[in-house]
UniProtKB/TrEMBL annotation:
Entry keyword annotation includes Signal: yes
Catalytic class of the enzyme: transferase
EC number: 2.8.1.1
PROSITE patterns xref list: RHODANESE_3
One annotated GO molecular function: thiosulfate-cyanide sulfurtransferase activity
Domain Rhodanese: 48-137
Name the UniProt record assigns to this protein: Thiosulfate sulfurtransferase GlpE
SUPFAM superfamilies recorded: Rhodanese/Cell cycle control phosphatase (SSF52821)
Alphabetical keyword list: Signal, Transferase
Residues of the signal peptide: 1-19
Length: 165
């Protein structure tokens, strides 16, 4: 009975968010690792959003390899609310990192600071790249490179040229 209840709960919780990743194994990992305290969005949700503010919560070296178009770097270890002082409290904010763990933690901080429309990108930049979407280098040009964080986490990024420096 416990297993059935857990499966029903898991199915119900994934329908609430509409955030999806293509890999069932990756989805299983994300279901355990990513906080549900911040509303989740997926690739298709992001493509439909209007007036979106993308905030990259990875470390600077990761952002410098590639990031989503027009994303603002705010960091994780070095995150400070001063980094988002220019972002209106009612902006449509999407935070992301490699898979959604760090961005979820930053999303919670933003919500606690009074930001109203904060969303965490489920699967984050890895899923964005996995689904064939473009990322950009510091010159604003499309790139095939993606920072894999480390070799353990990089396995979840199936496309692009992984960089670990």
């Amino acid at each position: 009975m416990n297993k059935l209840y857990f499966l029903i709960l898991l199915m119900f919780s994934s329908k609430i968010t509409n955030a999806q990743v293509k890999s069932k194994a990756f989805d299983s990992l994300l279901n355990v690792m990513v906080t549900k305290a911040v509303p989740l969005v997926g690739c298709e949700d992001i493509k439909k959003m209007k007036n979106i503010v993308l905030l990259d919560t990875r470390e600077k070296r990761e952002y410098e390899v590639s990031h989503l178009k027009d994303a603002k770097w705010i960091g994780f270890e070095t995150f400070n609310l001063k980094n988002v002082a220019s972002v209106p409290k009612d902006a449509n904010i999407v935070v992301y990192c490699s898979i959604g763990v760090r961005s979820g933690k930053i999303g919670e901080k933003l919500m606690q600071a009074g930001f109203k429309n904060v969303h965490n990108f489920y699967g984050s930049i890895f899923e964005w790249v996995n689904q064939g979407n473009p990322v950009y280098d510091m010159a604003g040009k499309p790139t095939n490179k993606i920072h894999g964080y480390n070799w353990k986490w990089g396995v979840w990024c199936n496309k692009g040229e992984k960089v670990y420096e």
